Amino acid sequence: MYNTQNNPRILRELKKHHHYVWKEYLKPWTFENRICCQRKGKTFSSSLDKIAQERFFYKSLKLGSEEIKYLQYLIKNMVPNVSKSISHIFNLYNDISNSNDEYLIKCGIEDLHTSVENYGKNCLKELQIGNIEFLEEDKYKHQLSLFLGIQYTRTKKMRKNLNPAKLKNKQIDLEKMSIILPFIYGEITGNWIYNTGEIELLRNNTSSNFITSDQPIFNVKAPLNETKKLKEFELYYPISPNYAIYISKTNNGKVINDNNDVLYYNQLVKSHSFEQIFGKSESDFK
C-alpha cells in the first residue's frame, strides 16, 4: 500500500519544502494561481508554494528503544487487519529513518504522503463535481478512507497536539514519534471511516463559499477546550467552495440553500484551524 523509492545510486533532488496540506487539494480555492489566506488576522494573497509548508517538515528521525517498544505494544493490541497494516508502516519507517541515503531520510516520508495523495486524487475530482455514487464500489471507498485518515492526522496542528501527559512512559521522545504517529493514527481513522463512517456530500447552493484551513479535515465534535473529554466523532472536510464531505455514523445527504449554514461550517473551520485559513476571496472570511 505504501511505497517509496530506495535506490541510492539515483541522484534525486531534495524536496526542501514539505506541505502539510496537500497543494492539489487547495487548488479549487485559487484564482490565477493565487489563494486568499488569513493568518494572525491579516489577509493576503499567496501562491500555493508558500503556504501550509515547512522546511523538511517530514524528515524522519531514528526511533529509540523506548519508542520502538511503545509502537510494538500498540501494534500487538490492535485488531488483526489494522495491526498488519501498521506493522508494515512501522517496518517501512524504520527502513527509511535508518537509511544512509540522505534523500530517503529527508524526503522519504514526504514521498509516502505523495503516494497517499494519489489514492485520493481521482476520488476528489469526482466529489468536486457532485458525484458520490462511485463510492458504492468498495475499492474507491477504501482508497478515499485511507486518504482522508492521513489528511486528518498529517498536519502541523496534529503534531503540536501530541500530548506527553497521555503517555505513561515519560522516556518516550514525542519529537521522534511525531513523524510516524500520523500514519498510525491515520490508518486507524481511515479504518473507522471505511467500516463505520457514512460519507455524505454537502452541496453548497448559496452565493457564499466554503472556506478551508491548515487543518482541513477535523472532528466537528472535538471540544475546543482541551480539558473536556472527546465523546463523539464526526469529520468535516471542505473540498471546494461548493462542496464538502461530512462523515458520521448516519448518512443524511444535504443540499445547503441558506447562507447561514455556510457561515456555520466556515466558523467551524476557523475554530479548528491552527495558523491559517484559506478562501476564494477575502469576503469569504467574514
UniProtKB/TrEMBL annotation:
Pfam families: DUF4238. It comes from the Bacteria. This is DUF4238 domain-containing protein. It comes from Bernardetia litoralis (strain ATCC 23117 / DSM 6794 / NBRC 15988 / NCIMB 1366 / Fx l1 / Sio-4) (Flexibacter litoralis). The lineage of its organism: Bacteria, Pseudomonadati, Bacteroidota, Cytophagia, Cytophagales.
